[in-house]
Specification:
Blueprint lengths: L4 H5 L7 H15 L9 H10 L1 E2 L4 E2 L26 E4 L14 E4 L8 E4 L2 E9 H6 L1 E6 L5 E6 L8 E4 L5 E2 L2 E5 L2 E8 L6 H11 L1
Parallel strand pairs: 6-12
Antiparallel strand pairs: 1-2, 3-4, 5-6, 7-8, 9-12, 10-11
Amino acid sequence: MEADYYKVLGVGRGATDDELKKAYRRLVMKYHPDKNPSPQADTLFKQVSVAYDSDSGSNVLASWKPMSVEEILTIDIKPGWKKGTKITFPEKGNETRNVIPSDLVFIIEERAHPKFKRDGNDLVYTHKISLVDALTGCAVQLTTLDGRSLTVPVKSVISPTYEEVVQGEGMPITREPSKKGNLRIKFQIKFPTALTADQKAGVQQLLS
């Protein structure tokens, strides 16, 4: 990991060039091997020298960007959060010398579910049924997102555009945690590909 040169020199990140030069000169005098017999002096002298090029007199820190400080940020995901929801951590973003760090912003994305689609606070579920069930009624059995088994009886004649709405079985509403959107059940009707003459006559007789 790259050393924190400011810490090595014992100055703050907002130190001026003059302050950096003074700190460098003071530490060079303190840790120079010819002046300091301590076993650690040589190592410390080299660390100080990295922050300042004594041959050219140029200040390496003038163009050095402060090291990234590792920090674990915790996001408490709220039930019902939608795609595009932003979570902002003030001053936890990129750092530049003498500038207040930028904010770190996380944007929520939603992973597609194999059975449900989200529409606002509602959940949409598509159920396949036969033409007979569409005409005579059926019961839709499904497992909710929270693992419950749900049976929805449908007694109406089901057309291709019909929706059965189950109140309160949709997504949680973030600003009203005790409430949920609705579950909207759509139907995909499987029509027969062919009918015999007798079947056609029977259908005509039943529906006429």
